[in-house]
Amino acid sequence: MMPDSLKYEILVFGCGNVIFADDGFGYEVISRLEKMELPKNVGLIDAGTGAPFYLMSLMDESCITKKIIIVDIIDFKLPPGTLKILSINDLSKIKKYTFDAHDMPLSNYLIKAKNAGMDVVIVGCQAKRVTTPDIEVGLTKEVKDSLDDAVKLVLQELSR
User: Fold this and answer.
1) Domains along the sequence of the chain with CATH
2) What pLDDT does 107 receive?
3) CB 3.0–4.6 Å: which of 27, 82, 104, 142 could bond 78 by disulfide?
């Protein structure tokens, strides 16, 4: 049975871990979106490092989700804080999507979602510092300064 948190036409997943500096970007974007009035068909999920588990649940035939928006840090060697909209085809260029901390590649589930007919978009932010395994809570200034624009990008994606 599918969890109620996944029973939306559009799902926005904030990925990452708040205890590893800029890896908390996804959480921060979701936190801002939670304070807004969004359409009733939009669900917000602070997925942390568990996005593969949520995405597995979406493979249920009773799933009504038509669009998935992933919000996460990326490493494309861009200036820190740079935002980039990525498609499913860009996933192979993102190391953490090939193997995450739990050895469950997120990209496999996103590709399955796309093949099941869901629209998949990634709102990525170039990280400046990810401290794994050392703990550092809080975003760098560059990534923190990109949060408002990241929220705007998600809101634009919701209306497409």
Assistant:
1) 4-158 (3.40.50.1450)
2) 76
3) 82
